[in-house]
């Protein structure tokens, strides 16, 4: 299920990039040159076969003159629902002192913590509901 969601996200990103490139009246080769990536690699991104790194997305965004954050959201790196979380992710992505690999590792760890907390919250919810019922029965 997770792999399907990633594939879906990467495909949607590719469609969006192709649309933005077309609107900018750039050929695939022109955008690849401006973004500093190879033509075949950019083609694979547009076709949804590759998931680009945050750094590559930033280069593509700069070449297309669009928001890098919008590409991060479309790539699944950032969640549009994240209030505070988005700022953590943006801070990691924007830190020039980290390598691309370090950034991705930090984002992966951060995402795993959020997912673990979500699982814990769901698991705790039924127990909280049972305690409320027991407390209500005891009060009567």
From TrEMBL:
Segments forming domain HTH cro/C1-type: 17-71
Alphabetical list of InterPro entries matching this protein: Cro/C1-type_HTH (IPR001387), Lambda_DNA-bd_dom_sf (IPR010982), TransReg_Diox_bact_type (IPR050807)
GO-annotated molecular function: DNA binding; DNA-binding transcription factor activity
Key word DNA-binding present: yes
Domain of life: Bacteria
GO cellular component, one term: cytosol
Keyword set, alphabetical order: DNA-binding
The protein's name: Helix-turn-helix transcriptional regulator
Species annotation: Nocardioides humilatus
